[in-house]
Amino acid sequence: MTNFKIPFLVLILVFSSKIISQNDCSKAIVVCGNSGFEGLTASGIGKQEISGANSCDGDENNSIWLRLSIKTAGTLGFTLIPESTDINEDFDFFIFGPKVTCGAIGQAIRCSTTNPESINQPNNYTGMNATSNDISEGPGPDGNSFVKWLTVAAGDSYFLVIDRPSGSSNFKLQWSGTATFDTPPTFDMPTGVSLDIKQCDTDGFQDFISDFNLKQNEALIIGTQSNVLISYHTSQNDALTNVKEIKNATSFKNTSNPQTIYVRIENTITGCFNTSSFIIEVNDSVNLPKNEASICDDITDGNDTNGLSTFDLTKVTATIFDNQDTTAFTIKYYLSKSDANLNLNELPQFFSNTKPNKQPIFIKVFDGTCSGTKEINLIVIPVPTKIKASGSQCDFGLNPDGLSLFDLNDYNSAFAGSDPNLSVTYFKNKTQEQNNTPLVNIFNNTSNPETIIGRITNAVTGCYSLSDLTLNVNLAPSQNIKPLDQCDILNQENGFATFNLDDATLVVTPTQIKSFYSTQSDALLKQNNIPNPTNYTIPFAYNSSVFIRIDDAGNCTSVSEVQLIVNKLPKIETLSDEKNIVCSNIPNRFITINAGKLETSSANFNYTWYRDGIDIKQSTYAIKVNREGTYTVDVANRFGCFKTRTITVTSSEIASITDVKVSDFTESNTVEVLLKEDLKGDYVFSLYKSDDFQTSNIFTDVPAGVYELYVKDLNGCGVFGPKIISVLGAPKFFTPNNDGVNDLWYLKGVGSNFSRKSFIQIFNREGKLLYEMNARDKGWDGTYNSNPSPSDDYWYVITLENNKTIKGHFSLKR
Predict the structure, then answer these.
(1) What's the pLDDT score for residue 202?
(2) Domains and CATH numbers, the chain
(3) What is the predicted pLDDT for the residue at 110?
(4) Contacts of 214 (CB under 8 A, 6+ apart)
């Protein structure tokens, strides 16, 4: 084994009252390269050997002696660390050497008896290190618990005495420095090879005591090592201290089974040693995986509840050996151990137990070298209790035939109760049960009543019993129930609707309970019931069915079908986008409105008309109206399902003018037509002719003149007009030369509607009144007192009937 340098070696010393300590020099423990001692104790002093042999005023109280053999020169130190951190745990040490012998150890070359509590040390450590200079210290408060380490030479040996004057703690040593110890011998075993020894009981008695040759593995242990000595011990302490060696190692009789043997290998030159252990064990001839075999109670003896049955011992063997190969063994069975030991009264292959439920017998196994006998138990397991059960079911239809569907799982609880370990399998007859061809859970009976077989199996034991299940079909016919129907949902119209199934006209007595199902089989099998029958949405558009099951005292009395029908709504245009207008000024004018487009003849529907929510007592597809309002019509089909169409009728009227504003005598004359504010029509305007209209009520750039104003309602309620409009204007010049062009100056825009009370005055530059005329006169010819007036500018003043005055000037050109 590889040498270990001192800094990496930890020596653990355990104080225990159970183990003999190394109190004396002659029994010092050799410290070697891998010495990790455990199981030692310091209890007492043995012989007092250090009193007066040290300068630390110390002696032995509870001591352990160690011998240190130096292999490589260098420095040697250590730290002693108590297992307990209690400062009252006080350890001292003393070192003698080099090369001293027991009885002549001389004076200690290093020692420390300092008390850690007396010097207020932060811990209770002690030892030798490189930083200390003193070589001895103590007792009591003298020193700091550490002294200077040693410089050692190869081949030197020292005695280290560790003493505990107070306390009871164990401790460990941590070595330091550069020196190394001698290397101990090793157990030179090949990898994977064990020292354990197992053998048969060789004394003829099965007492598990036998003679063992403990040395049979020595060659493996020693390998190529020399100068080694091997000893065997019955305890670890004996092996460590090399006491109580087993003397008869080649014929050692074990005292327990199994038993641990401790082996010590020691170098005869250095004294270094190593220890290990191995197991010796007396085996049975074979290892039996199990100690009992069981079968189910059966009817072979006429009773399957008496705990008695017949065992096939070859099958028992397979069970006990967990189906391992047993061809190498001779196996026999006996009622008693004495019969087995004497090979008397072997049991036959088929053995009927005589003790109910559980009977012990003995199996004897011989493998050609060893034999073993063990007690095993034969167990007869009870089968599940036999039960006779019955079940009832409804037939379906108005003419029942006694054949129906059964869910056999409904009857499991009758046979298995609440036992989770019991399961039930059903068979139509005994032959199918023997052939293990079970029925499916959903069973159609073929006769009424019909009895089938239920096999009740215990999942834990595998045992089963057979029971009868009688199935009866109730022959009560189904009820003839009127279908439930309702209209499709407006704005959805997909054929799906929600029904209250309680509305079905079903006859039920006070003791009967009804439940609803989506399919006939679910109703018969009483599975997947409809949980909320008052709010059931059909699964298929427009036409579905549900099935109502009636039970009385837990038995089905009938299953009936009720149809659920969703009737379609009429197909109409529910909102009219047409422009429906009546004329309030033409009460005898009517328009026609209708109920919208239908998918079939309108004769198949009923119509109810309303105006502003009030029934107007009309019932035809189309009606005539002359009043505005919101008209609705309910269109109902033969199922009473209806839609409502909405038609808005508005009114219009002929125009009514409140004023016409004319802006004249300008460069761009305008005419603005003002209508009555609350008119309902849509109007266009014309000044020129009745078929030339504009949407604006304002005319611009209107030349002076007389016009006919028209206002037309685009909704056809009439045309207002004509209304005569005068747009006035005066010429800028005139040429009275009798050529037929501009010979007169006159006021433009004066029509027959113009008042004669309006007049015009003409003045020359000097303001002299030259001419005065009515606004409707033909005009001034440019003369004054029958004499032609000269070419010049002249002024006019027009005074209208409303006293409005208009002034301006014009030119006379000749």
Answers:
(1) 56
(2) 29-181 (2.60.120.380), 197-277 (no CATH), 292-381 (no CATH), 389-475 (2.60.40), 484-567 (no CATH), 581-652 (2.60.40.10), 657-727 (2.60.40), 733-812 (2.60.40)
(3) 96
(4) 197, 232, 246, 249, 250, 252, 261, 263, 280
